[in-house]
């Protein structure tokens, strides 16, 4: 019998329970994966706390992982037993074994190790769609990325710099600011010490930014809007500090005919072709060395609660990974 991290009720890290788990056999279009590692993401916190409701209770937490295909179900031609795969969007990655839809998985090149693969599916493909598709970043782009020292932020900073952009970030400590500066950012603002809106205006000589990428939410609103030039784009893709308050859409007009979007990876990678293209872009940029992955913390799968305590307390730097 394999094991997994179950949730029987929503709440703090203490609700994560290490229990026996039978993933079952793969059905049509599915594969059974012997896991090597699972990624940890803020979306896991949202499900743990009930911000995002689960369709069933109890449930196994987690959305991304990497491992070896142990068995394939009827009709699967995409993979065969022994293939090394990574996936995103399957429920229950905090487990030793998992059955997933084959169409959610991608082949992992030998140049990418297990911990890296587990940490870049969601974070790397989030950076990919934000920088290449939500707002196509290039040499003329001036951008602001909140949580610059987080898992997505560190990837996005390097990638955006590789694309030629002027890259501004925010972080919550001197240590995190230094880390972001070492990962592509031209300027990093310590939001605990400085007014990030005023600093952005100063850094850009009043021009402000073309796009603000914001996964923080409540603590950065409406400041994020005030960092945008006329007709700039606010891309709100998360809310680690809590949801941004509801606002009248006329506010966007008042602040300069701004655009606002709430993108998600599932909308951008909703087809197998989109998933494959996004994963290839991530694997290629990491494999080239242009983007280096910072895995700040690893934990045994059985200690997922401790990982969540660190995540809640913002003690993590870069990506966090659960190892099986």
TrEMBL record:
InterPro entries: ADH-like_C, ADH-like_N, ER, GroES-like_sf, NAD(P)-bd_dom_sf, QOR-like. Residues 11-322 form the Enoyl reductase (ER) domain. It comes from the Bacteria. One of its GO terms (molecular function) is mRNA 3'-UTR AU-rich region binding. Keywords: NADP, Oxidoreductase. Pfam families: ADH_N (PF08240), ADH_zinc_N (PF00107). Its EC number is 1.6.5.5. GO terms for cellular component: cytosol. This is NADPH:quinone reductase. It comes from Aurantimonas aggregata.
């Amino acid at each position: 019998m394999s094991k997994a991290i179950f949730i029987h009720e929503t709440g703090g890290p203490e609700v994560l329970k290490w229990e026996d788990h039978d993933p079952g056999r793969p059905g049509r279009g599915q594969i059974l994966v012997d896991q090597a590692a699972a990624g940890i993401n803020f979306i896991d916190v949202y499900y743990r706390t009930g911000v995002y409701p689960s369709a069933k209770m109890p449930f196994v937490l987690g959305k991304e992982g990497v491992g070896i295909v142990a068995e394939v179900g009827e009709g699967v031609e995409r993979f065969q037993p022994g293939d090394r795969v990574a996936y995103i969007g399957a429920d229950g990655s905090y487990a030793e074994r998992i059955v997933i839809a084959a169409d959610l998985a991608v082949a992992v090149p030998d140049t990418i190790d297990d911990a890296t693969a587990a940490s870049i599916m969601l974070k790397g493909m989030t950076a990919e769609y934000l920088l290449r598709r939500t707002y196509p970043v290039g040499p003329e782009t001036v951008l602001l990325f909140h949580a610059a020292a987080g898992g997505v932020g560190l990837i996005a900073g390097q990638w955006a710099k590789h694309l030629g952009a002027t890259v501004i970030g925010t972080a919550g400590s001197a240590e995190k600011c230094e880390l972001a500066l070492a990962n592509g950012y031209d300027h990093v603002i310590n939001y605990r010490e400085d007014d990030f809106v005023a600093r952005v205006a100063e850094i850009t000589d009043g021009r402000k930014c073309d796009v603000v990428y914001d996964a923080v939410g409540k603590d950065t609103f409406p400041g994020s809007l005030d960092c945008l030039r006329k007709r700039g784009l606010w891309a709100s893709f998360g809310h680690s500090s809590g949801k941004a308050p509801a606002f009248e859409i006329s506010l966007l007009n008042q602040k300069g005919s701004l655009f606002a979007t709430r993108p998600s990876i599932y909308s951008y990678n909703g087809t197998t072709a989109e998933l494959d293209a996004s994963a290839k872009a991530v694997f290629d940029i990491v494999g080239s060395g242009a983007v280096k992955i910072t895995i700040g913390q690893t934990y045994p799968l059985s200690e997922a609660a401790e990982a969540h305590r660190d995540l809640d307390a913002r003690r993590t730097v870069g990506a966090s990974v659960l190892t099986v």
